[in-house]
Amino acid sequence: MNSLALHRVSPNDSEFAYCAKRAAFKEYVEKVDGWDDDEQRRLHEQRFRTQDFRVITLAGTDVGIMAVVAAPDCVKVNQLFLSPEHQGKNIGRRCMLLGFTRTGETDTHALMEWGS
Predict the structure, then answer these.
(1) Are strands 100-105 and 61-71 parallel, antiparallel or unpaired?
(2) Which domains does the chain have, with CATH numbers?
(3) Residue 116 scores a pLDDT above 50
(4) Alpha-carbon distance 2 to 43, whole Å?
(5) Is this prediction's pTM over 0.85?
(6) Rounded mean pLDDT of the chain?
(7) What are the backbone angles phi and psi of residue 38, rounded to the nearest 5°?
């Protein structure tokens, strides 16, 4: 099995994180609100400064990005984007093997809880 790892981002990873988001998510945002690249970049830069971003690597290759926020009573996964060529290969599922179970969904999000 290929080795999967998460590592903290450096400022140099911001562009990769934005490109991963755009590649994985743009078509869905376009359906709901339309994709405004300037606005999406502004949101990305704000989130990149304030959230705990991790680069997802598979066998040493950067394949996606994950952002989490730890609160006293929960861990919230704000973003998990995989490059399209790496989707459908259980990489996202493997990233979520932190004890999460699916509890529901909305039109745009999977709702999950971390079991105790």
Answers:
(1) unpaired
(2) 4-114 (3.40.630.30)
(3) no
(4) 32
(5) no
(6) 88
(7) -65, -45
